[in-house]
Amino acid sequence: MRNSCLKKVFSVFVFxxxxxxxxxxxxxxxxxxxxxxxxxxxxxLFDTEKDFGxxxxxxxxxxxxxxxxxxxxxxxxxxxxxxxxxPHDWAVEQPFSESGSFSHGFKTAGKGFPEKSIGWYRxxxxxxETDKDKIISLxxxxxxxxxxxxxxxxxxxTEESGYNGFEYDVTAYVNYGGExxxxxxxxxxxEEGWFYEGAGIYRHVYLQKTxxxxxxxxxxxVTSEIKxxxxxxxxxxxxxxxxxYKGSIEIIQTIFDASGKxxxxxxxxxxxxxxxxxxxxxxxxxxxxxxxxxxDNPNLYRLETQIKQNGKLIDIYETSFGIRTxxxxxxxxFFLNGKSLKLKGTNNxxxxxxxxxxxxxxxxxxxxxKLKEMGSNAYRCxxxxxxxxxxxxxxxxxMLVIDETRLMGINDYHLNDLxxxxxxxxxxxxxxxxxxxxxxxxxxxxIVGERITNVMQDFAKSIDPTRPVTVGISSGFKSGISSVxxxxxxxxxxxxxxxxxRNEFKQQPGMGTEEGSTxxxxxxYFTDDAKHYKSAYDxxxxxxFYSIEEGWKFYxxxxxxxxxxxxxxxxxxxxxxxxxxxxVTSYFGMMDVCGFPKxxxxxxxxxxxxxxxxxxxxxxxxxxxxxxxxxxWVQSNCDEVELFLNKKSLGKKKMEINSHLEWKVNYTPGILxxxxxxxxxxxxxxxxxxxxxxxxxxxxxxxxxxxxxxVSVITVEVTDKNGLHVPTANDEITFxxxxxxxxxxxxxxxxxxxxxxxxxxxxxxxxxxFKEQKGTTANLPQEFQNYPENDWKTAFKDRDYKNQAxxxxxxxxxxxxxxxxxxxxxxxxxxxxxETVVFINGNKVNPSPEDLQKYILDSxxxxxxKNIIHIVATPLQKVKDWDVMNTDPGIIQxxxxxxxxxxxxxxxxAQIIIQKEDNAKEVVLSASSKGLRSANLVLKK
Length: 941
Description:
six-stranded antiparallel sheet
């Protein structure tokens, strides 16, 4: 049932995309995903030579238009750079180090690592002559962070935040009918958050083409008012004119249901906005007997906005929306479509095991589906605007959302970020509340916080008056922000008296924006501080904090509270409280970083869900502890539960609402069985069974995956000879794949320092001490000759380009630290002559057939340490006196092939994320380990 629902949701998504692509062919609008085939290299934070000489020219890109230098220059040679696809997070690729950032998971990137804090991206695209009359722009969903963007050497702008989407108009700079170069320099040296944030272009990038008269990005705003089984839809559209047309245009607004059936349509003729101006136009449409959006039936509609100029269709813009009502009541809590609904939420950051923040779209759906399976109905974006695809998943799967901006303040930096987030996201029916801040300790309890909140709250209302505003507050609930915010956001019961605050501000609705912060390690049942493992039993994390059960009971018993959001749904990188190094992930999650459930998940399923649940903890593999007492907990929503050990009853107990049951059991190997009863009848049975030793590897595709998606999450485990899962297994598993690509691996171990990704290591080595001497003939030697040592001088120094020698012999050096036959060493030559011969350590090398300026160097002729390169070339001639001649001979690239993909199991499980090749009919994933029977998993397209 769940799979069919998810299949239906994704089918609708695919249909909408297909319909959009077909519709847009009839207008001038095109939105082209350009995630494929980028070049990437590290620069340097302060060493300009290691940053490829960027911003060192006499005229910089800020001095004169079009003077982007170094990699920002259009014709910079990036052939030696690594080739990759987006989304990309370079931080997750790095090793761990104790000198890394505690809050960001101890990765050797970003803050404190200048050689891994700057990332350069380059991509070449062709734009045809037929696009000359269109507006061409680049759209970025998010780059972490402080990104500078160049197009054909022209500087477009800087986006400081790593969480904002942004767009640049490149129309004036396009080389129509030819090649165009996009360049991004990302600077991740500064942290925006106190949690893992990744680094690089970790969200999608698009090339957009439109008519000069067009709907602006995020230019529609759809609201609805429901009366007597009819919804009145107000559709606002912002239209921009970047051309000289001054006549009228026709705007046609049409609503379609999920099946593509037209529901309503309206058109009007309006005056076109003036040159480089935009106007907002509003239309009214009626939908009879609307299918309301809710968490169980997330019904969606589609608004199609058409613009016609002199009868010709020039733009089509699609907007997905839902019809529903939301209300926060200070006495009765939250209402969706007029029905009371307790918010059962989680906070979450945006990273996942193995892939960091570079989440494929399918993983967004996977994570929301995992939370839905737990019984959760609400998601707080902690603490920044999310990826657009996450909100799409929430819309389509039925998950309520608190959408949160990154930083509080009243100036352009803060309010512009808030406005961009809200205008991008306000058509999502899943969003029920805007959050304008979180735990701003310097201002929470004072007049400054009060003033800022009033400004941000009123500003938000000017953009979207249909949703309330909240702030998550943790330093007392008495004054400042707490006294003026529309919806009070309580962060943790222990930080103040919630009932007392409510009695003082009885007209202010409230909810628990953060609760829990409990510590648990999946599969661990005895805390081991030496190993940094916390028991998975639900306990108070600190004296002033509360367990998950205590927190939920508090909110469930108070109708005036809308609900609570647990910190957190998933573990995340960084903040490994209460430990430090070598712990690299948090312990707070209900699930680990892979999405494997900890035992608290089953407590929440019992009381958040609507299906019978019965779960026993711990597992029953305790060799060496025979006769010792084990705490056995049962999570269930049954009326009564009876526990058996090897068929002997240990007693039947009644379950209190929102509680669990406990037994003390002396360990004996065998079968621990729980039987659940409803209304006196046996309804469920669950067992924990002592297993034999591991024998078989098992691979399975998780049911929460998007069916027919290109990316899949695979669970890796081992079983004994009877096919039983072995919960204590920690074997290392090696993987290989055919017709696909492995994106990342993980296992949920908060102390694991294993690699997340196994990728080729690409290093670039400069040619140094570059010298020259004159040749006497234009005939180039085919064998190496000895040249007089006294004749060498600095290459190109004081060169008289009007009186050049027939040829020049150049000599340089490059150092190789280690030579391995598996390494691939190449020389990427940058042309410094017309005809060229290259020698390495006295051996002539030939160019590669596919690139005549690339030389693949045989390891036989290379040396560890210093190597000598000679280049003999006939000289290039200046055409004009002011021509700038290339003096860079090129660069040495060393590719160290990646190790095989591998990962240890942690308490029985590991995870591998794979991507299918575009045209593959099937993908085969293989797994092997010493002493275990191998496994293959075949995924057919």
